[in-house]
């Protein structure tokens, strides 16, 4: 319960009917202020609940910050690994191309068989496929890092698209409502 204040006022008067003169009058004003002394623990219970909610909110915020930090660290490590993998794949392609050309020359000289050339060509194709997969992984991890940093949106990526304006959309929606909150129908 909360403190309350009540004010009462009364006025009385006596008037002589024959002469029309007021003989006596009283005015009474009374104020009563009520403060509850015992609330049954309701106030302290609400205070404890509010403190617990604030603490829970702080812990949830801290957990979220740690999760974001971990996502950034993980994304950065994945990006670094993808860069190294792409470098290794490119070197593997160079080596496979060199081996393929050498095997073709040896086959022309008669020291290698057609199967050897086909095997070298297969290794070259597998190396090229690994390089494509490494490039794909690098692109994906780059976007994952941008998302973890909160920079994966049309504005940050400078995409040539119309950007969503939440404030303008809110005003447009609220402008299409009657004062009681019901939607106003608009026709093009």
List its salient traits.
188 residues, single chain, alpha+beta
Could you characterize the architecture of this molecule?
With 188 residues, this protein is an alpha+beta fold. It has 3 helices and 2 strands; from the N terminus they run ββααα. A two-stranded antiparallel sheet has the order 1-2. The two termini are 55 Å apart. The relative contact order is 0.07.
Question: What topology does this entry show?
Answer:
Elements lengths: L3 E12 L6 E13 L7 H68 L4 H36 L16 H10 L13
Antiparallel strand pairs: 1-2
Helix pairs in contact: 1-2
Short overview:
With 188 residues, the chain is of the alpha+beta class. It has a domain at 4-34. Helix content is 61%, strand content 13%.
Helix content: 55-70%
Would you tell me the overall average pLDDT?
Answer: 86
Terminal residue distance: 55 Å
**Globular, elongated, flat, extended or rod-shaped: what is the shape?**
rod-shaped
For the largest beta-sheet, the strand count, sense and barrel status come to: 2 strands, antiparallel
- List the strand order in the largest sheet: 1-2
User: Spans of 5+ residues with little confidence (pLDDT < 50)?
Assistant: none
**Radius of gyration using CA atoms only:** 41 Å
- Beta-strand portion reads 5-15%
Counting H and I runs of at least 4 residues, what is the number of helices?
3
The succession of helices and strands, N to C, reads EEHHH
**Beta-strand segment tally:** 2
Oligomer: single chain
Structural class computed from helices and strand pairing: alpha+beta
């Amino acid at each position: 319960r909360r403190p309350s204040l009540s004010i009462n006022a009364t006025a009385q008067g006596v008037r002589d009917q024959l002469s029309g003169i007021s003989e006596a009058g009283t005015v009474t004003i009374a104020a009563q202020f009520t403060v509850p002394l015992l609330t049954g623990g309701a106030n302290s219970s609400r205070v404890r609940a509010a403190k617990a909610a604030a603490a829970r909110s702080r812990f949830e915020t801290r957990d979220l910050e740690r999760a974001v930090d971990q996502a950034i660290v993980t994304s950065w490590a994945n990006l670094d690994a993808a860069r190294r993998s792409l470098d290794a794949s490119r070197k593997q392609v160079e080596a496979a191309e060199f081996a393929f050309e050498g095997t073709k020359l040896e086959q022309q000289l008669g020291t290698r068989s057609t199967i050897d050339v086909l095997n070298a060509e297969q290794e070259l194709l597998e190396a090229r496929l690994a390089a494509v997969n490494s490039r794909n992984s690098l692109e994906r991890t780059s976007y994952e890092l941008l998302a973890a940093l909160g920079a994966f949106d049309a504005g940050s990526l400078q995409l040539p698209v119309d950007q969503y304006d939440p404030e303008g959309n809110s005003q447009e929606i609220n402008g299409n409502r009657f004062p009681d909150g019901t939607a106003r129908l608009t026709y093009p």
